Amino acid sequence: MKRFATVMAGVVLVATPACSGTTADDKSAVLVFAASSMTDAFAEIEVAFENAHPGTDVQINIAGSSSLREQILGGAPADVFVSADESNMGTLVIEGEVAGQPRPLVVNGLQLAVPAGNPAGVSSLGDLASSDLLVGLCAEQVPCGFLARGVLARAGVEPSPDTNEPDVRALLTKIGAGELDVGMVYRTDVISAGDLVEGIDIPDEYNLSTIYPIAQLEGAPNPAGAALFIEFVLSEAGRVILDGHGFGLP
Amino acid sequence: MNESTGPRRVRESAPWPLVVLGIIGVALFVVPLLGLATRTPWGDLTELITSDVVADALRLSLVTSLLATAISLVLGVPLAWLLARVEFPGRNVVRAVVTLPMVLPPVVGGAALLFAFGRRGLVGEPLNEATGLLLPFSIWGAVLANTFVAMPFLVITVEGALSGLDPHFERAAATLGASRLTVFRRVTLPMIAPSLVAGAVLTWARALGEFGATVTFAGNLQGRTQTLPLAVFVALESNRDAAVAISLVLVAVSLTVLIGLRDRWWART
Predict the structure, then answer these.
(1) Domain shared by B155 and B228, yes or no
(2) What count of other Cβ atoms lies within 10 Å of the Cβ of residue A60?
(3) Any chain B CB within 8 A of the CB of A169?
(4) B157-197 pLDDT, tens digit each
(5) Cα B101 to chain center, whole Å?
(6) Domain at A142, CATH number
(7) Do A115 and A196 share a structural domain?
(8) Domain range spanning residue A200?
(9) Which of the two ends of chain A, N or C, has the fewest CB atoms closer than 10 A to its terminal CB?
């Protein structure tokens, strides 16, 4: 399967510079690979960084952390990687793809999400066991589903899901459309969904959190730009933006 | 081309640019299959494809794709006949709308279905209130998603056949006193039978491979809405061996049916 990943990464390798019109020689470009849940926050950070450093061009490639990991292992010319969990970053560290040590960027936790107005009257984790409610979770193969099952196990709740969505945004869409009564998503997703979705806190004794590490990559075509970008994200200016999107301090 | 150039002669003198391009064309389809084969965990294959996840997904895939094909035949043949034979205002618009799912990203189709037939949807809400029926997250949601995406293949195939039909036979039957419905049933349908089968096979094949609309509209639950393509997708990044094994099942089922039907029916068309 590794060859498959290499081929896929090769496609990305060829396609990325072609789409953006830049090459590895262009020292002003910084290519950032970031986990999907970072979509909104990093769009804002991109603008702020480019304003702070005129002449630079940040390009952000968004996908699931495990897809990004495979692309980097396949030789994609990324400068910076932000993973939504420590295990995907850990694989890259073991493979010698990371320059230096990854640094913890943010922490994210789960929340119960219900459609605006909470029409089904959901109040606690126990409601996820109800067969009368339409319950959605992330598939256990993706980090949000794995984390959610961990939380439910700690609370002693056996869930009765009506769907195991392949990613957190798909789950959020169905909750926002009112097609599901309740689901478990990241706290930051509830914020990004705006008025469509309401969040219900999970008691701290059951909740689990995930740390997002950030790292410069060994094969970064623009190491100076990568270092500058990571510095900015971890600075007060970056912190404010991440806070605004609901990400906690690690 | 004169009489002496039969099929054999044409094959011998096939111009090399066509042959080269044709071979590249075939390679485009064969190479990915070889890629899949080289990554297949042959040793664990039996164990992987007899797991309950695969068995449930295979059963669901067969049931939903065959039901979608049946619904497409019942609704699609009359629709194709109307499009081919009756001139009505806006016919081209109707034809475009019917074939739209062929070019629309299936995820968009799934979202549209959700906003129409979901619990809060245009039709779904009154339907739910009147009957308690809920399409999303049920096997019927998967069937509806499959039908939405696959039926256009039946409609355009059958419409094409109807438009190309020699009208003399139908006229003769009508002259002999057969009603329009009898003509359709006894003359038209038998004459387009090969296209009907070809269209049904295409429809079934498209339904079997359906992913985007199904996952968006019907969700993903083992035994209820998780068809083979959905099972492959969720397994791909966590359990590649399982994903490859399921893919192989999908390829084997599809190829068996396509080859079997081609020998039996398509050679005649």
Answers:
(1) yes
(2) 17
(3) no
(4) 999 999 988 888 888 988 998 888 899 889 999 999 989 99
(5) 12
(6) 3.40.190.10
(7) yes
(8) 108-209
(9) C
